[in-house]
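Postdoc handover notes: sequence design on the structure in folder B. Input tokens:
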């Protein structure tokens, strides 16, 4: 695989679950506008934005390396080994708090989640799925059969992660919740 077009990465879906008084929100297509709105009948609105950056390693004249993040736009190309940082922002544009916000993000095909890279503000909780998004836990584990036939439970390897769930108990009116996580191109 020589490279992956960033436009191809945009094909993975942003799955949003925003329980506003048990109403099902509508979500606009974020890939045309780079943002989406989740809104219910009571006119509570959450504008969602997903952005991606590629880690660039530079070396100064003394040989010291520095890491920077370069925004990916348009037909950007990434190569195996490149690290991408995704930033998911949800702006509550209403005059009321949004309660029990849950945002599910699939790990794109051709990518591996960078362990312990996820972060969310607003007292958010991060859980992970290794079964295609059917269940989520804080520390996924797998059963491994050892050479002596004993079965042992071990932390799931990064390649097993399929989804990240970001749960925020409340997003106050006129504020923004922000989460980041990283993946590496296979």
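Designed sequence:
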């Amino acid at each position: 695989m020589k490279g992956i077009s960033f436009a191809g990465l945009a094909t993975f879906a942003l799955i949003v679950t925003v329980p506003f008084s048990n109403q099902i929100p509508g979500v606009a297509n974020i890939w045309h506008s780079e943002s989406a709105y989740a809104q219910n009948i009571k006119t509570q609105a959450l504008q969602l934005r997903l952005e991606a950056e590629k880690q660039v390693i530079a070396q100064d004249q003394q040989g010291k390396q520095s890491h920077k993040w370069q925004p990916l736009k348009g037909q950007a190309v990434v190569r195996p080994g490149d690290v991408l940082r995704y930033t998911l922002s949800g702006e509550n544009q209403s005059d009321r708090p949004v309660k029990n916000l849950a945002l599910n993000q699939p790990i794109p095909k051709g990518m591996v989640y960078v362990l312990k890279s996820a972060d969310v503000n607003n007292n958010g909780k991060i859980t992970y799925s290794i079964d295609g998004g059917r269940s989520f836990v804080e520390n996924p584990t797998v059963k491994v059969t050892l050479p002596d036939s004993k079965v042992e439970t071990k932390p799931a390897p990064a390649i097993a992660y399929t989804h990240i769930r970001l749960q925020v108990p409340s997003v106050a009116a006129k504020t923004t919740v922000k989460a980041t996580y990283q993946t590496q191109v296979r």
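Context for whoever picks this up: The two ends are 9 Å apart (CA to CA). Don't rerun without checking with the PI first.
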